[in-house]
Amino acid sequence: MIDLGLSKMALIGAVALIVIGPEKLPRVARTVGTLLGKAQRYVNDVKAEVNRSMELDELRKMKESVETAARDVENSVRTGTADFEKQWSDAVGSAGESQPAIEPPPSYPEYKHPKKKWRLKQGATPQWYKARNGIRTRALSGAARVARFRPKKLN
């Protein structure tokens, strides 16, 4: 890599100031800065893509190992069930007795909702009584409550 220290950067800046001139130097520096930024972003994108492809390869290998393990487990379960069914049929066949009839599960009556309308609950006090005695029947918002009970201005 290029080893750029502070002294070398100052020397490059002085030469650029002499060669390019003080009028064009800010524009050239800005252009060089944007180009360097684009180059860094491109390099970072390439690195990220390489890392993603490496991780993808690792995930594929892991997926294959998990699939082989699942196949092995499936095969062992199948052989185990085949052995169990064979032993079961031998045991049932050697018993020679008729199997008792399996009873169906007891039947229960189907659930019936009580059909209560708890959202439509009505109060015990009639509306006409509330209206006559000044009992609130509707909730007020905070702003409406403030407006209602705000003291009146005296002129």
From TrEMBL:
It is a single-pass membrane protein. One of its GO terms (cellular component) is TAT protein transport complex. It is found in: Cell membrane; Membrane. Its main location: membrane. The keyword Acyltransferase does not apply. One of its GO terms (molecular function) is protein transmembrane transporter activity. Keywords: Cell inner membrane, Cell membrane, Membrane, Protein transport, Translocation, Transmembrane, Transmembrane helix, Transport. Gene3D superfamilies: 1.20.5.3310. Residues 91-124 are annotated as: Disordered. Signal peptide: none annotated. It comes from the Bacteria. Part of the twin-arginine translocation (Tat) system that transports large folded proteins containing a characteristic twin-arginine motif in their signal peptide across membranes. Together with TatC, TatB is part of a receptor directly interacting with Tat signal peptides. TatB may form an oligomeric binding site that transiently accommodates folded Tat precursor proteins before their translocation. The Tat system comprises two distinct complexes: a TatABC complex, containing multiple copies of TatA, TatB and TatC subunits, and a separate TatA complex, containing only TatA subunits. Substrates initially bind to the TatABC complex, which probably triggers association of the separate TatA complex to form the active translocon. Belongs to the TatB family. This is Sec-independent protein translocase protein TatB. The lineage of its organism: Bacteria, Pseudomonadati, Pseudomonadota, Betaproteobacteria, Burkholderiales. The gene is tatB.
